């Protein structure tokens, strides 16, 4: 190795060490009173959170890793676990998937916080807003320093589109501009991406840079994630946007999720046509990139990995990392989030543990997962959301190590769930009635039934007999049950109620 390469290697390692030494993202607060500290080599549960939120959440610490505040779409709590002065937000539903926090480029004591609305609803209540938190103000806390305050003049200012109108989305993320002094606040809406500049002059409300998404479906968006910086000649980040196809996607029988991965240029705030990947799946809406943007993870019920470095044209490499055994009707959900150290965690809803992807940086069968990676202390549990990283300017500097974009990476389509789609079509040929039922449940199908089993919601087998396409449920207690019907084409699960 020559002297120049050794110097470059040392420089890159130093940049990475400086990046990881920052403590702004050391504390995650999420779900039902759940929180984790990442300051040490072994993550530790925090058990004094006051927050209960189903999805959207965020938290920020100072450079030493000491908590400043955490928030849901409804409240902002200070480090003493009290609602911050002026921290009661308009009473949003907590089902908005994302919110975002970023330091004010003009004032190190201030933070912009962005809350999203509910998809499909635009009112004075359900809308995208921003507020400013000032940590030099507020009551004095237990450590003798101010606890922060939401500025009255900058509380829940509505974000406006290019026509000056309110609009809605559950998706928002923030990407540093390449100039090192400003950020892009990215919000997808229908088939357009709005990129708002945030700099020392403030938030450029109503004046976004707009990119057309050319998405296969229109309407609502669950989430948006940006990759770490990449060094291609025409773009700086991958952006993954996860919309759904109707207004009632969760568990609806004909709802499709899709994920679009675009190439984004943080110098201009625009999507550029170098890269596009459409990943279709019935069971994914949450996304995350690994630390070098070589692997994309997609999940909700199940968890997939996509090899971004080695996918070209019609050859897109993907694999299933985790196959959730529970039926989708049970409400299986997932949020995926990378921490500042490059570790990736995912939250299976209503669990006492935070799960982890074990080897996210090498695509292949050894990726692995641990559903019980971090015990949350017994006082908290996961829900459907995890806090996004608070962004910071690129500490590696403006390097000129550029790669040429590969033209074969344009317009790729990946069907993550071909087998599942096939089974879903078969499910349409299987029905059960009456539902609710009191004595005999009839299975209507032209397929040959090979086996039938009935379990309660907890998964415990129930005493029900099957004969001639009828299931005798007279001995079952009243309640909800899952019936699994096996044919040579596969398994179908349906929910029924015993009266």
UniProtKB/TrEMBL annotation:
<dbReference type="Pfam" id="PF18962">
    <property type="entry name" value="Por_Secre_tail"/>
</dbReference>
<protein>
    <submittedName>
        <fullName>T9SS type A sorting domain-containing protein</fullName>
    </submittedName>
</protein>
<feature type="signal peptide">
    <location>
        <begin position="1"/>
        <end position="21"/>
    </location>
</feature>
<feature type="domain" description="Secretion system C-terminal sorting">
    <location>
        <begin position="432"/>
        <end position="497"/>
    </location>
</feature>
<keyword id="KW-0732">Signal</keyword>
<dbReference type="InterPro" id="IPR026444">
    <property type="entry name" value="Secre_tail"/>
</dbReference>
């Amino acid at each position: 190795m020559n002297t120049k390469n050794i110097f470059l290697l040392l420089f890159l390692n130093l940049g990475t060490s400086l990046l990881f030494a920052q403590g702004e993202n050391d504390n995650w607060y999420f779900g039902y009173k759940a929180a984790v500290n990442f300051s040490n080599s072994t993550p530790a549960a925090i058990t004094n959170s006051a927050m209960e939120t189903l999805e959207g959440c965020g938290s920020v610490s100072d450079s030493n890793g000491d908590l400043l505040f955490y928030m849901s779409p409804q409240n902002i709590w200070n480090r003493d676990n009290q609602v911050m002065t002026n921290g009661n937000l308009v009473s949003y539903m907590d089902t908005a998937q994302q919110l975002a926090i970023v330091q004010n480029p003009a004032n190190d004591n201030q933070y912009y916080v962005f809350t999203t609305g509910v998809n499909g609803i635009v009112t004075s209540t359900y809308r995208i807003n921003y507020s400013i938190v000032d940590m030099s103000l507020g009551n004095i806390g237990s450590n003798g320093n101010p606890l922060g305050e939401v500025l009255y003049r900058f509380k829940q200012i509505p974000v406006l589109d290019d026509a000056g109108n309110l609009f809605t989305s559950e998706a928002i993320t923030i990407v540093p501009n390449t100039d090192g002094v400003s950020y892009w606040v990215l919000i997808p809406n229908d088939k357009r991406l709005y990129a708002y500049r945030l700099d020392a002059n403030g938030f450029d409300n109503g004046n976004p840079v707009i990119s057309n998404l050319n998405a296969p479906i229109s309407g609502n968006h669950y989430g948006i994630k940006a990759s770490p910086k990449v060094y291609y000649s025409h773009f700086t980040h991958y952006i993954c946007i996860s919309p759904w196809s109707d207004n009632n996607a969760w568990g609806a029988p004909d709802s499709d999720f899709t994920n679009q991965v675009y190439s984004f240029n943080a110098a201009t705030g625009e999507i550029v046509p170098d890269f596009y990947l459409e990943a279709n799946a019935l069971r994914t809406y949450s996304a995350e990139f690994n630390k070098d943007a070589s692997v994309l993870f997609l999940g909700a019920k199940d968890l997939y990995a996509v090899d971004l470095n080695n996918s070209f044209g019609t050859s897109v490499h993907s694999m299933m990392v985790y196959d959730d055994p529970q039926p989708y009707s049970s409400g299986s959900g997932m949020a995926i989030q990378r921490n500042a150290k490059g570790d990736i965690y995912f939250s299976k809803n209503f669990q006492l543990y935070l799960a982890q992807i074990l080897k996210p940086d090498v695509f292949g069968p050894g990726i692995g997962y641990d559903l019980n990676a971090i015990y949350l202390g017994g006082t908290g549990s996961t829900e459907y959301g995890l806090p996004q990283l608070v962004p910071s300017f690129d500490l590696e500097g403006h390097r000129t190590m550029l790669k040429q974009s590969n033209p074969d990476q344009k317009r790729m389509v990946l069907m993550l769930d071909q087998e599942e789609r096939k089974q879903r079509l078969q499910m349409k040929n299987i029905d059960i009635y009456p539902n609710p039922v009191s004595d005999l449940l009839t299975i209507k199908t032209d397929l040959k039934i090979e086996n039938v089993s009935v379990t309660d919601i907890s998964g415990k087998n129930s005493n029900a007999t099957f004969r001639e396409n009828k299931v005798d449920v007279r001995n079952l207690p009243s309640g909800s049950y899952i019936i699994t019907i096996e044919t040579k084409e596969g398994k179908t699960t349906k929910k029924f109620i015993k009266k």
